[in-house]
Amino acid sequence: MTRRRAPVSSPVALTVAGSDSGGGAGIQADLKTMEAHGVFATSVVTAVTAQNTLGVERSHVLPVAEIDAQYDAVATDFDLGAVKTGMLATEPVIDLVAERVADADAPAVVDPVMVAASGDRLLDPDAEAAYESLIGEATLVTPNADEAAVLTGVEPTDRERVREAGEELVSMGADAALVKGGHVGDGGTVTDTLVSTLPDGEPTVRRFEHPRIDTDATHGSGCTLSSAVAAHLAHGETLGYAVEAATAFMERAVRYGLDVGEGPGSVHHLAALREAADRHRTITDVAEVVEAFVDRDVSRLVPEVGMNVVGATEYAERVGETAAVEGRITRTLSGAAPNRGVRLGASSHVARFLLAAREFDPDLRFAVNCRFDDEIEAATGELDGPVTEYDRDAEPADASGTMGWGARRAFGTVDADEPTPVAVLDRGAVGKEAIVKVVAETPERLGERVFTLLDAVDA
């Protein structure tokens, strides 16, 4: 017997851009990103580039008639929820796409690709002026600082000049402009500035800030960001939410970039998707560690506040992406037992400590808090790696939280060529119980380290 078909309805988005044979940018990045957001991605290829992580070797622009035929094939068959443009290369191509976008009943995100991350030029200098007509049809235009300067004549060197550049792009007809801040300044924060028009015509400014990531592997970042915005718009979400979600998505994609090729590498277009896929495995890992702790009876190591085992997904960035015991593990008359099961976001303190530690060593995936006393402190000398500590009395009044501050104190002072600490001593304070936090890359290693402590104090 044949099975009954069960089709799935999905919004559709279109990318009009050049092909990147290296797979990190262009059409390839757009398709990966859109599909990662649950959007059926269609494409119109404007140019073929011989490109990799080192740079662009050759570029060939397709005839305008071929580009038009591709667009017509997509537009006559699919109900487009959003259109995104990337590398358009020449004035005739820009003119064609501007006409097509004007006729489309869908929001349009215009990424004015002019220069590749490697510095190779991807736009004919004579075509720069042609962008004004396409910008006039845009729901959102997403230039980096260099592109914004070319398009507006305003050098976005500081917050005020960035705002001016965004307002100039809006005055050219775009509903909104997102001036990306990755190229602005060399400080520790990246600020993307969204300028849009209010109903009365006055511009409004919204800034999205995130820590600058120490990497040169940003190949494809502009394509990925604009495609993420387009995908959210295809889902019917508001522009403000689309930009907020896309910038957060981009931060994760850059931090967990792919170490591929001989160049700096590529952003990880599927990092968020992989994070979600890793959640069930992480929950299972934590549950197995908890079961092992109960079977072995680790009650001697359970603090008064209770013990929690926390596991972070491979791409975790927030507490909700960590698994832990709901209600913690407590001592009972018969040993140690969890109050309830394992779920995402069940821990606060230990999870925030683990996430902060991962800023220094992203391979750390698991952590547990144990009782602190003289015997257990002595037992940490039996562990298979260095042990460090922090003093709560040194915590500044303006610290954002003890767990994050403590992790930064414990791991931030370790040189890059030294091994990562395997345990951190927190000697407590008035009203705060002293704790030993054990960390590990795998659930097996976490269990081994806790059992090492238990064997030492039971000896």
UniProtKB/TrEMBL annotation:
Coiled coil: none annotated. Keywords: ATP-binding, Kinase, Nucleotide-binding, Transferase. Its EC number is 2.7.1.49, 2.7.4.7. It comes from the Archaea. This is Bifunctional hydroxymethylpyrimidine kinase/phosphomethylpyrimidine kinase. The gene is thiD. Residues 286-449 form the Thiamine-phosphate synthase ThiN domain. Residues 20-268 form the Pyridoxamine kinase/Phosphomethylpyrimidine kinase domain. The keyword Nucleus does not apply. Transmembrane segments: none annotated. Gene3D superfamilies: 3.40.1190.20, Class II aldolase/adducin N-terminal domain. GO terms for cellular component: cytosol. GO terms for molecular function: ATP binding; hydroxymethylpyrimidine kinase activity; phosphomethylpyrimidine kinase activity. One of its GO terms (biological process) is thiamine biosynthetic process.
